[in-house]
Design brief:
Elements: E1 22-28, E2 37-42, E3 60-65, H1 71-84, E4 85-87, H2 90-103, H3 107-119, H4 126-139, H5 144-149, H6 161-173, H7 177-189, H8 196-208, H9 212-224, H10 231-243, H11 247-259, H12 266-278, H13 282-294, H14 301-314, H15 317-329, H16 339-351, H17 355-367, H18 374-386, H19 390-402, H20 409-420, H21 427-437, H22 439-449, H23 455-468, H24 474-487, H25 491-503, E5 511-513, E6 517-521, H26 527-546, E7 554-558, H27 571-582, E8 587-588, E9 595-599, H28 600-614
Parallel strand pairs: 2-3, 6-7
Antiparallel strand pairs: 1-2, 1-4, 5-6, 7-9, 8-9
Helix pairs in contact: 1-2, 2-3, 2-4, 4-6, 6-7, 6-8, 7-8, 8-9, 8-10, 9-10, 10-11, 10-12, 12-13, 12-14, 14-15, 14-16, 15-16, 16-17, 16-18, 17-18, 18-19, 18-20, 20-21, 20-24, 21-22, 22-23, 23-25, 24-25, 24-26, 25-26
Length: about 625
């Protein structure tokens, strides 16, 4: 345990209480013939004029405490006052010094001062405990806050809601959510009056532990018992709902906040911006952004980048360019574009195939002193691939090697995406880049392209690569490889790849069957993967009929109704035209968007007619 400094004959500076002014009166131990009453006022700075005296004839001195006193100086001052004055309420002075030690994060000195206070016979009060507990929360070992909280009954102190709030927050910070919530229940059992402070603390504990429903329940509970939420409470629940990806709840709570005339601050708008950008609520995010800009609120580079990432994902080109201009014209260096900013802009332009835009951003990035990273080059290659600039794809791949950047699974997936859209005559150039990035994946592509290679050898090679890559790229790899199979007319290999993917559970719940309806679920699949799956399903339906089994009354194909934000097309539109081309009796369901339905009678007639024409 740390030792405390020895007190000199007089203090070199005054005590400090950083939170609120407090006054303390004392009499000197050895008063002269003209006794002096001293008053210690703890506040940031002495007033220009001393307060008026209640008795002008009294010889009174005023001392104002410096709130930035070093801890050792504060302890020395404490000892000087205790030795040279008859202090009426010593615990106030100890509390002041405890607050100084808390501010400077000196836990060992806090424990030492507590021991000294006990030896001095000074009885702690609620303020002492709340200060020591909050100090333990800030800088003490985990569990210390609860340990000190449990000492309160021994000292004859009953915890108030402020103390409960501090110790609950300490438990939350230590990751002990169970203890925090148990203390919250204890506070309610003791019929402590709920207040916004403890409610905000408990909501934060719930949010930190991922229990977002719990945070919302506390918010609703406090309103049910007529505790009016304040700004901190609203900001806490907005942050929780944003993390929970519930932007519709965020909008409702924000409207309630405005109706209750609680004035939002910068933290409120930051919570709103984070919630809307995470959920890709583009219009709402831009409204909040422009309010913050009009109010001249600081928007740091993290928020800027969240906005740009959202814009890149949902195709907000004009809005992204506006935000990018604002960043560049900012006078504060903290808000200037960084490598992630440039990455988002390149991603935006790459998804729309805007080659001049992507190249312009790359040039600006280099002029700003940033080197392209793998994310930039991945987006750039995607951009060149979309624009069918195969030679530029190869040149950009060369930049990756020049910068000695190791290709990752996502980068290889990007090359596969480019390969799927590359004309046959230039496919070898992209295939060479894939081979240099990942020889195993390159071998799979070679087996796919080579019409002489056996389907079984291709299937085994594909299974090996799919088993080894990270889970997040397994479906994209399958989608791209099947697109390439379909584009090259290699349907047998596409079916073999689909079989391997189903065995590896990369595509799950593709088919569902009930007594009334059999359905094919294609949402999330690429066009090539969807067409391959449809081909296999149709063969399975015919096999069912050949085996003498009956089809259910309804057959359905679910493609989803989403559209690609950049091309304006989705699987549903591509599939509709393909079904018409095949003259399949599936028709768009008028009351179920993204569904194509037919009856078993129509399907049976079409399948039998198709097999007859093929034989």
């Amino acid at each position: 345990m740390a030792s405390l400094p020895i007190c000199p004959s007089s203090p070199s500076s005054f005590l400090s209480w950083p939170h609120r002014p407090v006054s303390l009166s004392f009499q000197p131990k050895n008063p002269s013939s003209s006794p002096t009453a001293a008053h210690v006022s703890v506040q940031d700075s002495p007033p220009l004029d001393p307060p008026p005296l209640s008795d002008p004839s009294q010889n009174t001195r005023f001392l104002w405490v410096n709130p930035n006193s070093p801890p050792a100086t504060a302890v020395l001052a404490l000892r000087w006052f205790l030795q040279n004055a008859e202090v009426r309420n010593k615990v106030i002075l100890y509390n002041v010094v405890f607050k100084v030690l808390r501010k400077k994060r000196r836990w060992s000195e806090t424990e030492a001062l507590w021991d000294e206070m006990m030896r001095d016979g000074v009885r702690p009060d609620n303020t002492t405990f709340s200060t020591v507990i909050s100090s333990a929360r800030a800088c003490g070992p985990p569990g210390k806050a609860v340990e000190w909280f449990e000492k309160m009954p021994e000292a004859g102190c009953s915890p108030d809601m402020l103390t409960y709030s501090v110790v609950i927050d300490a438990c939350g910070r230590a990751g002990n959510a169970e203890m925090a919530l148990r203390l919250y229940d204890r506070a309610r059992d003791e019929r402590c009056q709920l207040d916004p402070v403890i409610c905000a603390t408990v909501m934060k504990v719930h949010s930190t532990s991922g229990n977002f429903d719990g945070a919302l329940n506390v918010f609703e509970e406090m309103k049910a018992v007529s505790v009016k939420p304040n700004l901190v409470v609203y900001n806490t629940v907005l942050d929780a709902m944003g993390r929970a990806m519930r932007p519709w709840v965020v909008k409702t709570i924000h409207r309630e906040m405005v109706s209750q005339q609680v004035q939002p601050n910068r933290a409120t708008y930051c919570c709103l911006l984070q919630a809307y950008t995470r959920a890709r609520y583009g219009e709402d995010a831009m409204v909040v952004y422009r309010v913050m800009k009009d109010e001249a609120m600081d928007i740091d580079v993290v928020l800027y980048n969240m906005l740009l990432s959202m814009c890149a994902d949902i195709g907000y080109a004009e809005e992204a360019e506006e935000i990018f201009r604002d960043m560049k014209t900012s006078m504060d260096s903290r808000f200037k574009p960084d490598s992630w900013t440039y990455s988002s802009m390149v991603t935006l332009y790459s998804c729309t195939g805007n080659v001049p835009g992507a190249e312009g951003i790359l040039k600006e990035m280099k002029e700003a002193g940033f080197k392209p990273n793998i994310f930039i080059l991945t987006s750039l290659i995607r951009c060149y691939g979309k624009a069918e600039c195969t030679d530029d794809v190869v040149r950009s791949f060369g930049m990756l090697e020049d910068l000695k950047i190791t290709p990752d699974d996502r980068f290889c997936g990007c090359l596969l995406t480019v390969a799927a859209d590359t004309p046959v005559e230039e496919l070898g150039k992209v295939g060479d880049c894939i081979d240099r990035s990942n020889a195993q994946l390159g071998a799979v592509v070679k087996l796919l392209v080579d019409r002489k290679a056996s389907t079984e050898s291709f299937k085994e090679a594909a299974r090996a690569i799919l088993s080894g890559v990270c889970s997040v790229v397994k479906m994209p790899y399958c989608n791209c490889l099947m697109d390439l199979c379909v584009n090259l007319g290699q349907m047998e290999k596409a079916c073999a790849l689909l079989d391997a993917a189903l065995q590896l559970d990369i595509y799950s719940n593709v088919q569902t069957r009930t007594q009334v309806q059999w359905s094919l679920h294609l949402r999330g699949l690429s066009v090539g993967a969807a067409l391959t799956t449809l081909h296999v399903w149709m063969n399975d339906l015919y096999t069912t009929l050949q085996n003498g089994e009956e089809l259910p009354p309804l057959l359905g194909i679910h493609t989803g109704e989403g559209k690609n934000m950049y091309s304006g097309k989705g699987l549903v539109s591509v599939f509709e035209s393909h079904l018409k081309e095949l003259d399949v009796p599936f028709h768009a369901a008028p009351d179920k968007a993204g569904w194509f339905l037919t009856t078993s009678v129509a399907a049976k007639h079409w399948l039998e007619a198709k097999k007859s024409s093929e034989s």
